[in-house]
Amino acid sequence: THEYVLFFSSKGKVYRLKVHELPVGTRQARGTAIVNLLPFEEGEKIASVISCREFPADEYLMFATKSGMVKKTVISAYDRSRRDGLIAINLRDDDALLAVRRVREGDKIILATTAGKAIMFPEDQVRATGRDTSGVRGISMKDGVGVLGMEVTNGNGDLFVITERGYGKRTPVEEYRITNRGGLGIKNYMVTDKTGPVVGIKVVDGTEDLLLVTQAGILIRTPVDSIRTAGRATQGVI
User: Fold this and answer.
1) Distance, CA of 158 to chain centre
2) Which is nearest to 187 in space by CA: 114, 120, 116?
3) Nearest to 172 by CA among 228, 123, 222, 125
4) Fewer CB within 10 Å: N-end or C-end of the chain?
5) How far, in Å, CA of 191 to CA of 183, rounded?
6) Could you tell me where the beta strands, DSSP code E, fall in 27-127?
7) Alpha-carbon dihedral of residues 172, 217, 28, 5, nearest 10 degrees?
8) Widest CA span of the chain, in angstroms?
9) Rounded to whole angstroms, how far apart are CA atoms 66 and 48?
10) How far apart are CA 195 and CA 190, in angstroms?
11) Is the dihedral of CA 74, 201, 1, 97 positive or negative?
12) pLDDT of the chain along its 238 residues, tens only?
């Protein structure tokens, strides 16, 4: 209850609360509207949530935006609070913050797009910059395509991918060759009308359960190892 929760918004701001400041609810409860807890602007949404007790100087946060930009900033830069939030990343008007992850030296970054492409590059290809900066190009995409997620990996495990219509698969991370950031990436999923666009990725080790939540709030729980391993350019299973 004494950890901090950092709320990163789609508009590139960060807000901070202590865990004990969050209302407790049951599984069926609707919860509390975020505007009752944080001074969000109209149209501002939560992009990522990170909890931490300390803000070490040797750990970083990696940011990814919808248009494929990435930024790395030391986590200690966020060890402060302001009622109206702090700028976490500078965004272009047509861009939005998508994901924030903790990274350490030697980690690799995976970015995936809605069109079924993915790129993996070492975290040290992104030079650390201050809070109020916009970052560098992580992946290049065609018009109408956006980044849907970012994962951090040490090179082990599988990349689980799921599409809008509920098709999913997992592929060993080692099948994704390491490249330089900023490229077009490689095939990650065989997107078709049947599957719909890719909507989520997660690095898994096979021992976990997956919790899948639909837009209607229906929760499905399934063991990771019940989803078969398949190559990069495949459709997966329902």
Assistant:
1) 16
2) 116
3) 228
4) N
5) 20
6) 46-52, 60-65, 69-74, 86-87, 97-103, 108-113, 117-122
7) 60
8) 47
9) 13
10) 8
11) positive
12) 889 999 999 999 999 999 999 999 888 888 888 889 999 988 899 999 999 999 998 899 999 999 999 999 999 999 988 888 999 999 988 999 999 999 999 999 999 999 899 999 999 999 999 998 999 999 999 988 999 999 999 989 999 999 999 999 999 999 999 999 999 999 998 999 999 999 999 999 989 999 999 989 899 999 999 998 998 888 888 8
- Tokens representing 124 are 């040290």
Can you tell me the distance from the alpha carbon of 162 to that of 141, in angstroms, rounded to the nearest whole number? 20
Q: Give pTM, 2 decimals.
A: 0.88
- Picking from 134, 109, 127, the residue whose alpha carbon sits closest to that of residue 119 is 109
Residues in a beta bridge with 147: 113
State how far the Cα of 208 lies from the Cα of 157, in Å rounded to an integer.
11
Do the Cβ atoms of 221 and 211 come closer than 8 Å? Answer: yes
SS3 76: helix
Secondary structure of 140-207 as H, E, C letters = CCCCCCCEEEEEEECCCCEEEEEECCCCEEEEEHHHCCECCCCCCCEECCCCCCCCCCEEEEEEECCC
Tokens of 192: 């078709």
**Whether the Cβ atoms of residue 134 and residue 185 lie closer than 8 Å to each other:** no
- What's the token pair of residue 114? 């809605």
